[in-house]
Amino acid sequence: MLHRCRRRPSHHESRGHACRHCRTCASASDNGRVLLIFDGDCGFCTTSAGWIERRLPDDVRVAPWQILNLEQYGLTESDVTTAAYWVDAEGTAWRGHLGIGKSLIAAGGVWTLPGHLIVRPPVSWLAGPIYGWIARNRHRMPGASEACRIDLSDAADGAGAPSPD
């Protein structure tokens, strides 16, 4: 599988190879570093990850699961093909809407308030099912393709874990 560098579209790297041009391609040894994990085979997910990456501080890494050692984060392929994950500096993996909320908080500025709302009740009670619906229908979203289609019948409904306070 090849990865297309977003900063230099003509630059390709094979899976696992560190690209010096973008954080997405960075090496997979990120102990203690904050990380947003997404599905690099899904156009909608890749576009969404690129959007948030442009707003995140430089010390936050955004990477497709396909180039990561998932065991390092306590995740499986089944986990990361059904939801995005935010892995905080302590190594806690926040699934789905909670991960998205945490990434918005980290982005700062005007995104902080929506991020806090998404991770706390009562908004989080709605955000989980909405995230689940988007994940199940991501193949219908702008920029998506059939590669984005996933079967969530045996996966969580998008609810994140662990729970906030």
Please bin the fraction of helical residues.
25-40%
Helix/strand-derived category reads alpha+beta
What's the N-to-C terminus distance? 40 Å
Order of helices and strands: EEEHEHEEHHH
Unreliable residue stretches: 1-29, 154-159, 161-165
Strand content: 5-15%
Shape, per Cα inertia axes:
globular
- Rg, nearest Å: 15 Å
Q: What strand order characterises the main sheet?
A: 4-3-5-6
What is the tally of helical segments? Answer: 5
Largest sheet: 4 strands, mixed
Mean pLDDT: 79
Number of self-contained structural domains? 1
Number of strands: 6
Account of the 3D structure:
- By secondary structure, the protein is an alpha+beta fold.
- The chain has one domain.
- It contains five helices and six strands.
- It has helices at 43-53, 77-80, 96-107, 112-119, 123-136; strands at 2-4, 12-14, 35-38, 61-64, 85-87, 93-95.
- It has a four-stranded mixed sheet with strand order 4-3-5-6.
- Strand 5 (85-87) and strand 6 (93-95) form a beta hairpin.
- Helix 3 (96-107) runs antiparallel to helix 4 (112-119).
- The longest helix has 14 residues, at 123-136.
- Residues 1-29, 154-159 and 161-165 have low confidence and may be disordered.
